[in-house]
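thought: fold this chain, then report.
action: predict
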Amino acid sequence: MSDILANFGCLDELTQVIYQGVHKFAVLSTVSDDNWTVHIGLSGQHGRWWRGYWSEDEIHEHFGSKLSDKLLEACAEKLADMFIQGEMCISDWSTEKGAKIKLTLGPTSKSPLHVVLVEMTVEEAAAHATKVFIDIALHAQSRKCQLYPNSTDLPAFKPLNDHLKTPRISAKQKEPSSEIRGKLTEPMASVQTMQELSDIPTTTQEKPKPTLRSISKTAAPTLSQTPTPKRPKGASLANPNKRARKYQALEFGSSDDE
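observation:
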């Protein structure tokens, strides 16, 4: 493969479908040592095949002969992106036999690129279709000769926010340490022990408020123990600090004494 066509490796083994009006076309892109080749197949009862290619001369014609390999590879990647995105159509379409049609890439861009297509003979079309099916069968051998790959054969989808997932904890991390296992296996305290602990008074416990009955019981001995001072002899009942007044009884004489 020449150095120029080596830059077109991104266009090798690509396939796409073009829907244009009532027609449906299959598009296949391949890169060989000499050309970048495009095959177009029309589906339906009147199916036909066309073929077009770019050699080194056509590549120089479209991109210039002094283009560096880096820029040439960038142009090929742009073509591959148009192909993958389906940005292409069939220009100068005609149902007549031998009509020259074109595959246009980037039809809405300022500088669309065209590949001239020539209709293939029946023998050429049959040979090409057989070659394509042989390639499909060879690829199917790796998946037990199934025409289409199963979902299990596809690579597992990795979500974009996979780094936000909570890390999984291994079984070794889930096992508690020997110290924790020992504490978990110790027997729990008995009900009696818990009751004994609950009976121990604490400094924060609130003391019970005294009742009237308890006050009367505690106050009664105090009153009875205090001795009552004796009243001094001859003291006044009204005022114990003063002596009581003595009253002398009045005596009246009888009429006989007169």
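thought: worth noting. The beta strands are 14-20, 23-31, 36-42, 49-54, 88-91, 101-105, 113-119.
final: tokens above.
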